[in-house]
Amino acid sequence: MSLPQISEAEWEVMRLLWTQSPLTANQVVKALSTTKPWKPKTIKTLLSRLVKKKAAGFDRKGREYDYYPLVDEAECVRVESRSFLRRVYGGAAKPMLAAFIENEDLCTEDIDELRRILDKKGNA
């Protein structure tokens, strides 16, 4: 099964569904309206698009619908990461990692975690 193309706005809805599903449309609206300047109709349109793309599904409960993800978050992140790497860095991880490390403010804990990940990768 290929994963659907998810827009930036749709990612916001999916992040919520991945952490708190099932949710009704009104619950999604309430949760996202605290962080996004979107109208309820916009959020409901995003839910409909995700259902159409088969990224989200729903169960009908009377007059309400309970929405839940149909695609795995980790798999979507992996596919999106590879797509970004191809588009922006020609598929090469080294320049992307170098740019990230040089341009981001990293605390000691972040640096230690990155070292641990690289060391583990080097020993694999």
Please describe the structure with a list of short key phrases separated by commas or semicolons.
124 residues; mainly alpha; 3-stranded antiparallel β-sheet; 6 helices; 63% helix
Summed up:
It contains six helices and three strands, in the order αβααββααα.
Notes on the protein architecture:
With 124 residues, this protein is mostly helical. 63% of the residues lie in helices and 11% in strands. The protein has helices at residues 8-20, 25-33, 40-52, 73-89, 93-103, 108-122; strands spanning 23-24, 56-61, 64-69. The chain has a three-stranded antiparallel sheet with strand order 1-3-2. A hairpin with a 2-residue loop joins strand 2 (56-61) and strand 3 (64-69). Helix 1 (8-20) packs across helix 3 and helix 2 (25-33) crosses helix 3. The longest helix has 17 residues, at 73-89. It is elongated. The relative contact order is 0.12. The mean pLDDT is 92.
